[in-house]
Prior knowledge:
Number of helices: 3
CATH superfamily of the largest domain: Lipoprotein localisation LolA/LolB/LppX
CATH class of the largest domain: Mainly Beta
Strand order of the largest sheet: 7-8-9-10-11-1-2-3-4-5-6-12
Strand content: over 45%
CATH topology of the largest domain: outer membrane lipoprotein receptor (LolB), chain A
Amino acid sequence: MRMTRSHVTAGLTVAICAAFFSASAQADRAPLDWLNSMNAAMRSTNYEGTVIRMQDGNAEALKVARSVKDGVILERVVAQEGNGLEIIRIGNEVHCIMPDRKSVLVEEWDEQSALFSKLPSSEMRIGNEYDVAIVRKERVAGREAILLAIRPHDEYRYGHRIWLDTETSFPLQTQLLSDGTAIEQVKFADISINQEIHASALEPSYSTEQFTWLRQSSGHQGTRIETPWRNDQLPAGFRAVGAHEETLAGSDEPVTHILYSDGLASVSVFIANNSGDLVAGPAYVGGSNSFSVERGDYEITAIGEVPAMTVEQIATSMQQP
């Protein structure tokens, strides 16, 4: 068949129309639809690439590879600088390989991500504590992305920016914001999405046969309990979502762990018998803040990826049984 000018024009018209309707369909998607698609993508997307993670003014490069097979997460994260830390994940079992110490720490993870901080779920109460809006289209790691802005209504929680791949809804970049300034960021410099991930990309770089293996006791996951501890002065939107009795690493003494959440931000409160060694007051690492206080025979520590005033209010307003 001989290609004529009319054939070329028709082909270009079809391509332009297809692109127009695709863009229109994306524009018609509500912000919550994007967030729901993001949560699905986080559970099922295979990817491989390079991530730049920034915190406290410091940047680190990570090589990452992740595959989901029959619902089982296989993941490898390798620090490109420093001590060469590698994280190998098979399902809920995670091996943190520390080659400089010739040791491997084995932990149990559930929904925890090796890359991303807390991302919004369907429980986030839009319109009450947060507003979410589509800002614009940009490019991240060479891919087209939709920028979503999640803005808090008060000073008790951080804001978020999330760049979602328009094809898959996978987060290509995330920022945690305090007063409009990014205090933590995760950004892919390059990424391959939903391509075949070779088995070698998910295997450790080191032979760990001669390493010391340390296993985090599964008891730290805790036993669900009903606790008489309560808090009637929580910041708006926060509520208790669970309480457990746990044994933390390095201690034989059980503690009560109460988790408070507004559907996006979460604060963990740990209540233990007063040891006399508590360092009271605030502390922070990146976007995570903590506040500790003594209350009679108990010591209370609240910690979360929230502003300092939030953990202080929650810790100091816990009510004894």
